[in-house]
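FIELD: query
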Amino acid sequence: MTVIEPLLSTTELEQLQWRILEHRRLSRHAVAAPFAGWQTSVFRGRGMELEEVRAYQPGDDVRRMDWRATARTGRPVVKVFREERSRGLFMLIDRGPAMRFGTRGELKAARAARVAAILAFSALAGHDSVAGIVVEDQKRFFSPARRLEGVLPLLRAACAPLPESSPAITAETLLEQIGRAAERGSLICLVSDFAQWRGEHLPLLLNLAAHHDVLALRIVDPGEEELPDAGKLRIVSPATGRICVINTSDELLRARYASAMADRSDALERLFRRAGIALHRIYTHRDALREMENLELLT
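FIELD: result
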């Protein structure tokens, strides 16, 4: 079926942005690691934003002395600035044929758009730049932007109505282009079901992980993990248009299907583990923001 409405409406995007801002407001706390998501860093060090003025301590940089306060109080006083730890976010948002599948919640492509919006709003709230590639029948690159109006074209492309059909773009092509397009040191988030990704892509993944922090978010529909006992189903391939009928009441068929899909999941986990890349599942029928909070992807 052709989807003529956007995967996410403007109202839904606005609601997601509000939830992100509320999440940040409620979760502000001191962090103990140098990279703790996109929360504003409370590390005290060199930066542009003044944190406090306090008494000089041995080891403080004399270039940070507040000479006026020192003269006024008669005691050495230094300025302490909030340390800047900004880095760019680069997203791969998959809208290929396999992403046009959904049995519960929403289509995988819609969930990918939702996840991308959450990531983008989180990055913008942390004053980080956002860039990316949206993939369907062609690759659309969106340059880094630090303001909402600059990121909206990327989100609108991710949320646009799906075309009736389109050829899949190979993982090799995507990985090579991401490596060229992403700024060095960026956090790269791959948002896909990784339907085409195999062991032979390991060298490209290793090369990507060597130059960037990489996070893989696998979009999963529960119908991909096991077949429900729903009698005969008519299945249409989004890639080829081929139609087949399967009998899901066949217990042996359901068991073979579940085993094959479990093997596929294990293979993907091994692939990303060997590349040193964290792989997380995001389900189409669950609350996306809550899932990402539980996985500590937003803290």
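FIELD: remark
Confidence is low (pLDDT under 50) at residues 30-47.
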